[in-house]
Here is the input.
Amino acid sequence: MTDCPRFEGEGMKYIDGEMSAVERAEFERHCAGCASCRRELDSFTRLDALAGRVKMVDPTDAFWERYWRSVYRRVERKTAWVLMLAGALMIAVYALRQLFESFHRVTFETIAVLLFAAGFVLLLVSLIRERCHQYKNDPYKDVKR
Here is the structure.
């Protein structure tokens, strides 16, 4: 950190080339006579040169392949689906319980809950059947992915 307040205000403008030719010459004259600013300028110039050599690299195909095969990603997705399914089941069970407690009154809400529950169960059974069929008939199930 410099003791000279001038570097704090103008030092980065000089390094970034944001000064006019007159301001630049004035700042260079100041740095020639101020050891603190000269030290800071040298330090920041080296840092700027070093930062300029850093290149951002796009992830390679191998990186994405490792990511998609990673245990974390698979566990994360499966856990999310299990939690969502558990929440939906809890809501369905609660709705059915409420429905049976007030079964003597058939209302629009009662019919909507029954239709939702029937559709949910049908989709769940369909999904389970599809996954079982897919697993049994998958010619690549023994291939390590």
